[in-house]
Specification:
The chain is α+β, with helices and mostly antiparallel strands and 333 residues long. The protein contains nine helices and eleven strands. It folds into two domains: 146 residues, no CATH class; 154 residues, PH-domain like, CATH 2.30.29.
């Protein structure tokens, strides 16, 4: 419950729920005040020849009140989430108010156009009520959009940001030990992959659509595994293939050393994720990489983009490993 309250504007929620209910109740009370002057049943649809469809008074009022409530809730509640931009919240609040009033004006025009008639077939929609109500709905909706205060408030995300800022102030080295980067293959690899899979798939789509779909899916999977996200923090090293699938996780306490090297994927088993006994690798291209030697004797090789980023990742891993083993300096109080 606390999380929900932190993510929405509670005042906007109260207004979004209460205003359509009050408006529907007012419409229902006014409809019963003129009940004795209305025919039974009421006309609900007209054509050039007059009224065509009819419904009982209770059905018209009940469905009309429900329509006011549901329409208002559907639009006004869009202004409650604090994660949305302030301008969007203002627009949705004004639109919800105006739409609720417009629906009420249409229903009122339907009822007023049938006052004093014994037969609803001679009725019509009161154009004056409809025009005045629509104008008022538009004007009040615009005013509400301008006066609604959609100010950003302190949220859970702000709390996390403040906590992270305090941690960085207490421990200035924390930012240096947090390294994140994306690595990917060279553009020529993707071009070659597209030519070798997508082009044959396009030719096969006329004769064997299922085989073309298999080739296209294989090309997509291969492309995703040529992207990786490398993250280093105080916990250790994490590598996520395609940015989503965790393939390598090394706790900081298990890291013996880390150094940048120039490697070739063919020497490590090929591109993508590879595992040979205690040795693992996640390489998306030939060139700069970080070779991590574990305390158990295994090695992990990870692509690191360029020489500068490889050196930065290696230094960060060396620091977090030293800190995990108790060799590093404690954070400042």
């Amino acid at each position: 419950m606390g999380t929900f309250r932190d993510s929405v504007d509670t005042r906007a929620v109260r207004f979004a729920i209460g205003f359509p209910l009050v408006l529907a109740a007012a419409f229902t009370v006014c409809a019963f005040l003129i009940r004795s002057r209305l025919p039974e049943p009421l006309a609900v649809r007209w054509s050039a020849d007059g009224a065509e469809n009819f419904a009982p008074f209770a059905a018209v009022v009940g469905v009309g009140a429900a329509l006011i409530v549901l329409t208002g809730w559907a639009v006004l509640l869009q202004a409650a989430p604090l994660t949305r931009p302030a301008v969007m919240r203002r627009i949705m609040m004004g639109a919800g108010l105006g739409l609720s009033l417009f629906v009420t004006a249409v229903l009122a025009a339907v009822l007023v156009g049938q006052i004093g008639l014994s037969d609803a077939r001679a009725s019509h929609v009161d154009v004056t009520i409809l025009a005045m109500g629509s104008g008022a709905a538009l004007g009040l909706g615009v005013v509400m959009g301008f006066v609604f205060k959609a100010d950003e408030r302190w949220s859970v995300d702000d709390e996390r940001a403040a906590r992270a800022a305090l941690e960085h102030l207490r421990d200035p080295d924390l930012a240096r030990d947090d390294v994140r980067l994306w690595v990917h293959a060279r553009s020529s690899i993707f071009v070659m992959l597209g030519i070798s899979t997508l082009f044959p798939a396009a030719l096969l789509s006329l004769a064997l659509p299922w085989l073309a779909a298999v080739l296209a899916a294989a090309a997509l999977v291969a492309t995703l595994f040529l992207f990786a996200r490398v993250r280093v923090d105080r916990a250790g090293l994490r590598v996520l293939a395609a940015g989503l699938l965790p393939v390598l996780t090394i706790p900081a306490a298990e890291i013996g050393s880390a150094a940048p090297e120039l490697v070739r994927a063919a020497e490590r088993g090929g591109w993508g994720f590879r595992r040979h006994g205690r040795d693992s690798s996640m390489l998306v291209a030939n060139g700069p990489a970080v070779v991590v030697r574990r305390l158990d004797g295994g090695t992990v090789t990870v692509s690191a983009g360029g020489p500068a980023s490889a050196d930065n990742v290696a230094q960060a891993l060396t620091r977090v490993a030293s800190r995990a083993r108790g060799d590093g300096a404690p954070p400042r109080p």
